[in-house]
Amino acid sequence: MHPSSLFILFLFLSASFVYSLTTNQTRFFNDLDPNSSISFVNDYLSAIIYHNPSQPFNITSKNQLFSQNLKIVSILPEENLMKLWKTLPLNRNQVILNNFEKGACQIYHPLEEFDVIITSRSLFLQKFRIFRKGMGIRKLEGEYFETSDFIFVDLLPYTVLQVNSNDELIRFNVSNEKPSCKEVLQNFEYEQNVLTAYSILTQNNSSSTINNEDLQFLKLWNSFNINLMSVTNQQLFRTYLSQQFNLSSNSTIQQLNSLLLPSNCSVCKSDMCLTDLEFKEVEYWVIPQICFVIIYMIFLICSGALTQPSLKRRLLTPYLPLLMLYFMFALADVFTPWCRSVLFITVGFFLTFCSLVNVFTYLRLYYLRNLYRLFSNSEKINSILSGIVPGLLFTGLLPFLMSFFVSSHYISIPFVLDRPLVFALNINVGVTIGICCLIGFIVIICDILINRKKWKDKGLRYMLFFDDPFMIRIDMILLSFNLVILILMTAFSFNRHAIYFLRTILFFSFILTCGGQCIIKYLFEKLRRNKTEQESSFEEFMKNDDFRRIQREYCVKELSLENYNFFVYLNELKSKAMKNLTLSQMIEVEKEYLTGVFEVNVSGSSKRAFYKLKKQVEGSSAEANVSSSSVSISSMTGVGSASSSIAEHQFKVQELISIFEMEVLTNLKDTFSRMEKTLEFLTWQKVYKIQKQNDIC
Hints:
By secondary structure, the chain is an alpha/beta fold. The protein has 3 domains: 3-272, no CATH class; 277-409 and 421-528; 531-628 and 646-693, Regulator of G-protein Signalling 4, domain 2. 57% of the residues lie in helices and 7% in strands. The protein has helices spanning 3-16, 62-67, 79-86, 110-113, 121-127, 189-201, 212-221, 231-245, 253-259, 286-302, 309-312, 320-331, 340-369, 371-375, 379-385, 388-406, 421-450, 452-458, 460-466, 472-491, 496-528, 531-541, 545-557, 561-573, 583-594, 604-637, 653-675, 679-693; strands at residues 25-28, 36-50, 72-74, 95-97, 116-120, 150-164, 227-228. Strands 1, 2, 3, 4, 5, 6 and 7 form a 7-stranded mixed β-sheet that branches. Helix 3 links the parallel strand 3 and strand 4 (95-97). Helix 13 runs antiparallel to helix 16. The protein starts with a helix and ends with a helix. The model is unreliable at 1-22, 530-536 and 631-648 (pLDDT under 50). Keywords: Membrane, Signal, Transmembrane, Transmembrane helix. Residues 1-20 form the signal peptide.
């Protein structure tokens, strides 16, 4: 039949039959639908070769490709592409894996530095213009690449278009609309359709839309009989393609190149898309993350929460959300064109650093909680280790140095080239966070098992708040909860909004573990606190033995026992208030409460007053010694004078008490302000009120 007659028949039939697009489906080579027919192969794993007439070899078939000693790069971001690639008879040692990534810090220029690029045809057409400028190897420096610079050797079928087997006649729809190159390319179907049409029309079997070699390959991957379109539909489709693109079985490569897009077409507004920052809809999830950090930092700095031991003794941990904010920005799609490999490596470093800071902070808090027990064994060592500077070195500098080693696996991310960079990063980040969460889960389970009797007898409130003023157990519970979030992120990986939502929850949970829950507790207690009642009742409470026991126990948990001990010591001195103050008493106070590991938190003015008094007492003692010596000499020689007798000024113990009493009392009241919300205090208070009403106490 004459081609023009076929075309007329095609137009008539296509006007008579409406083909539903739902019967068209693109399937991978290893996942064909047994109930549908193959229309044609619409994408291949291809070898793309730069066409250079001056080269001594001219590769036009796969057999020539495998027999040559060539420098090959494979770009295989999808699992099925990797499966196809592994079936090729290639020498793996001569093949380098790489990615088509936007932005700076590229390891290779795949269009310039390799003889052959192996990837899917559609992926190459979408991405190769990222590297559109030559660097002087194959193209002059700054000269643009275009599609016609390359020869496409189709190696293996990658995706196949299938149609409904019951459709006797099909209306085909292959676009031949050539996109304008005035703006950045958004639609990449045109060149793919041109190459598909050329491949089908120029193959040896002129009556079919799929060659026998491709068909046999598809049969190897699918365990059923593969159906083809009817001969009539195949002929109609070939005629349709010929009319759409003005090609035939005799078309030359020059005719094909004339249909392809010119070099001025681009997928980027700038070189390597470096400044093509595109804010996507999912990026709006960064806004609540920023708000969380801003609100957290405002309350941390302005609410007075930093004065609380539960935050003050965490040292660097409360400020870590500022670093994690960088983590969220670096992972945002909007910064894709920047140097992603460097961004991802720094993300890994900061994430590792934050994790190690938390781990070492918890270790230090555990050490400080047991310091009173350890102090008698190694006083000098404990005195050194418990200071602020050693604490910063242990929880800051040491994690920083260790992070270079522990985060070294993130350096390999740019070289994991058989997967997208984001995929490689997500695996590493998931492992890092997962290990931290697993540690938290193990710690809280071990704590429950070891202290199961205490948990059962004392209850949840006692164990989470009274027994643990630093809320470490709550931190461990939050870390355990994050394991659930990680599992959900894996389950909903197909939904980007779900991923960003769960990432925001994870970020909020991290803020809580850094001290957010301490701020919430502090603000809640501050709102409920009745300062007037506290001021008038605390001194009265301290006269009660049971209250002093509860207060002391809470001070031990909160690492502020030195305030309680100093308060008790000053009360004992009150019985000697009007006696003379001795230098030994001053030295004892200095050693036990103003220096060393259990230094009491008092103001600089109080310390200056103490040392001024100490100097006066030392002077008084020296004068007393001189006077005593003079009296002895006079009695021996019988010589004496009024001028040699120096009057001794005596200082009273009350002067020492008055320097520190109010400040130590203020410190204890501050601890009491947190203790008064615990169940232990409330229980004691009920009993105390009953006893007081009945004049028992």
